[in-house]
Amino acid sequence: MRIKRNHIVIAAGFLLLLLWLCCLPKNLFRGVPYSTVVESAEGELLGARIASDGQWRFPPCDTVPSRFATALVQFEDRHFWWHPGVDPGAVLRALRDNVRYGHVVSGGSTITMQVIRLSRGRERTLWQKFVEAFKATRLELRYSKRRILALYASNAPFGGNVVGLDAAAWRYFGRPPEELSWAEAATLAVLPNAPSAIHMGRGREELMAKRNRLLSRLLEHGDITLETYESALEEPLPGEPLPLPSYAFHFVEGAPKGVRTRSSLIFHLQLAVEEAVRRRSDALAAEGVADMAAVVMDNATGEVVAYVGNSSLERERPGRQVDIASAPRSTGSILKPFLYAGALSAGVILPRTLLPDVPVNLGGFAPQNFDRQFYGAVHSDEALARSLNVPSVFLLRKYGVERFYGDLKALGLTTLTQPAGHYGLALILGGAEGRLTEITAAYSGLVGASVRKNGQKSGWEVGQVPLWYTFEALKEVNRPDQLDWRLIGSVRKAAWKTGTSYGFRDAWAVGMTPRYTIGVWAGNAEGAGVPGLTGARAAGPAMFDILNLLPADDSWFPQPDGGIFADVCVQSGHLAGPDCPEIVSMQLPESALESETCPYHHGGAFTLPPTMEWYYRPHHPEYTPPRAAEKVMEFIYPGPAAAITLPHLSGGEEGAVFRVAHRRQGATLWWHLDGTIVGETTLVHSLRLAPAPGRHVLTVVDDEGETATVTFTVL
Ligand SMILES: [Zn+2]
């Protein structure tokens, strides 16, 4: 019998051990919802959102700041660092006190036991207390003392809907827990014991007394000096809960819910950029431009270091909640540098190739420059710097819409939802939409591809030499007609580009230094256009303000090695031919050797085709027309074999204006439509005609008997 009893004892003991080993769930606080918390790269709090159960409960931390830890242990559980989860001395003391006073005055619970209680949320009965003690010893085996303290700090109630030390420090003192004073740490150490006291008038007196008793214990124990103790007594209790910091509002809105996110935003830069954008945006608001967004990226890492989804949230207006930095908007001219770099990389152009800038009608698409002028012929780098639309369209036609469309996708633009043909040549003039975040990233990738060596870049393949020429072209910032330079302080060196969408709805400016890329968008989130809203005027100043906030850096994109050197015609920018008089040796990508040789120099004379010449001459007095050209005149409108529709104009006038360029000033032209004379022109060769629908032949004859003919169809 004795042996059997021993067996029973052993079996019972074994069962108890098994029960003890398995009594804790894997995650004590499973299913508890947390606040969304977003921190800067340095760990500063940018903003937070309340947890799904309406509590301010920050995601748990693994450590507890030392002042709070010291105060808490001194107040709740003086033998915390030594006991195995249960403190027999404290239990005996509690029993004695409770018997003496006839009711429960002290629980004798250790911090470890309180962690168990917080995770179970049961009533406080003697049995529950026993269960807590049982499990507390097991918890001690699983976690370090510091970890147990952290579990307590993360889950203790601090009054109202404030749970956990982090949220309490911010809500009551407006600071992270690491920065609390001794008086503040002591207040929070005693608060979970009577969490409702902080909101009640009489409870506050008691709370103050408790805090001060704890402070005096800390003094006795040698944790604080007399001086600290005396000044701590002077500190008041916290008042109404404070609002949490709210920076990078839209970024925080978009952050993963219910977790703590360490972002790449740089705290001081974020605050300064928000302020700079606010100043510019508030000034523009008076002109009807309500919204502004900005993104700053580090080119070396590709990370976003400042993010303003929309400016000036406190300014009452519809649309301020919209995160426009990541909303698709019409791109205007902001994509032009990618075409220049792509065409250069592919050998379609050289850095300064002349591009046509003449009226053209491509299947009903008649691009205009911003100033509604034509310049005849413009060097490609200048066309980019001046953001001329017509040469860009000619370049895109040469490079290929499909190819450029593929480039944009490879650069990370996710907004090209239609096939390439849907956008056509308008793709380069804002026909597609883009997000400020993605466009800034694409620009940053350009710089990244040229300064980054770790291979982390977009799928876009472009050479170093073309990129360098692109930055050089974009460095030309001297455009006083578009940007009021008096509004901007000192201007740092940057490669930059602006864009304005159709109907003045979107103003863009993107600036690049070797280290950073800054993207700014201005307009109305609701979509309304504002006359005069241009990228340079509305977005440019904010972009330069942000540039001036960045660490001073005078370095410039280094001219890369590689490529080849070849002779280039200075006037045309093409590979030099045998007749080109002025030649320069240029560093070019290898693909340049496949590009076209100068077509404009014949026998020493620089000769443009008549239409280009017609628009080129007024801007280039040095241009001398050739004496014996093959072609003296050319139709500007319509183009060869064009299909045209006749617009119905106001005032009863009908028809289209047909135009011819003639090299010789003062020439007289006779116009024949389908063999019948219909008019005569001298200085300006334009004639309004309204031919019936169908196919027609139009011929002009000049006073020397030269002729030009065009066939066209009226739809
Ligand atoms: Zn030439």
Structure, described:
By secondary structure, the chain is α+β, with helices and mostly antiparallel strands. It is elongated, with a radius of gyration of 38 Å. The chain starts with a helix and ends with a strand. The structure holds zinc ion. Zinc ion binds at residues 569, 571-572, 577, 580, 598, 600-601.
Quick synopsis:
The protein has 715 residues and is an alpha+beta fold.
Class computed from helices, strands and strand pairing:
alpha+beta
Which regions are unreliable across 5 or more consecutive residues at pLDDT < 50?
Answer: none
State Rg: 38 Å
Biggest sheet, open or closed, and with what strands and sense? Answer: 5 strands, antiparallel
How far the N terminus sits from the C terminus, by CA atoms, comes to: 116 Å
What portion of the residues fall into strands of 2 or more residues?
A: 15-25%
Strand order of the largest sheet: 7-6-14-13-12
Overall mean pLDDT stands at 87
Number of helices: 21
Give the tally of β-strands: 26
Give the overall shape: elongated
Approximate helicity band: 25-40%
Bound compounds, each kind once, are: zinc ion
Secondary structure elements and their pairing?
Blueprint: H1 2-21, E1 36-39, E2 45-49, E3 56-57, H2 66-76, H3 88-101, H4 111-120, H5 126-142, H6 145-155, E4 162-163, H7 165-173, H8 182-190, H9 201-220, H10 226-234, H11 249-253, E5 260-262, H12 267-285, E6 291-298, E7 303-308, E8 329-330, H13 336-345, E9 354-357, E10 376-379, H14 380-385, H15 389-399, H16 401-410, H17 420-423, E11 433-434, H18 436-451, H19 464-475, E12 495-500, E13 506-512, E14 516-523, H20 535-549, E15 564-569, E16 583-588, E17 601-602, E18 605-606, H21 610-616, E19 633-637, E20 642-644, E21 656-662, E22 669-673, E23 676-681, E24 686-689, E25 694-702, E26 707-714
Parallel strand pairs: 1-5, 3-4, 20-26
Antiparallel strand pairs: 1-2, 6-7, 6-14, 8-11, 9-10, 12-13, 13-14, 15-16, 17-18, 19-21, 21-24, 22-23, 22-25, 25-26
The structure holds zinc ion.
